[in-house]
Predict the 3D structure of the following.
Amino acid sequence: MKEYRGCIGLVKGHTWLSKAIRYFMNVYRKRKGLPAMPLYNHAFIFVELFDKMYAVEALWNGIIARPFEDAYPEKKWKRIKVKVPKRPFSKEEIEIIEKTACSYAFKRTKYQYSNFFSQIIWTWLGIWLGTGKTNKRFYYTEFAAYCVNKVRMFFKHPERVNPLDIDINKYFEDVELCK
């Protein structure tokens, strides 16, 4: 799993909120003229801590780091897509992404609810009403985009990024999740 360090994981959950987010991702997909495709509703960053893989993610209670296999047991792996950069991260880039992700996980960083709700309007109408770039609060995909943007400008507006934007980003490709 060490080859995923610094990469983004996309998740397809089964809660009512997960299904609602995927509904809006489907609206967004159609608005962008994209073909039918599997849709995801959450994102996290892979980091290595204490010789173990962790998922660092923005959840309703803020940015948290959890051992990957505790957060996403193997039986849930079929619902996860790993996005790796087409041009692999260097060791230095991985360290920057991991330090960025962990610095927010190990201090009290609140969830960015306003941008989460702004995503609904962005999805439907293409109008952004949320806050601009920030580094104090994050919602789920904004945090993943912010972390990887610390080393390369993958996303022009990380505060507007949703799971579909990560999935179709031209600088990333999919890899199989395996041990």
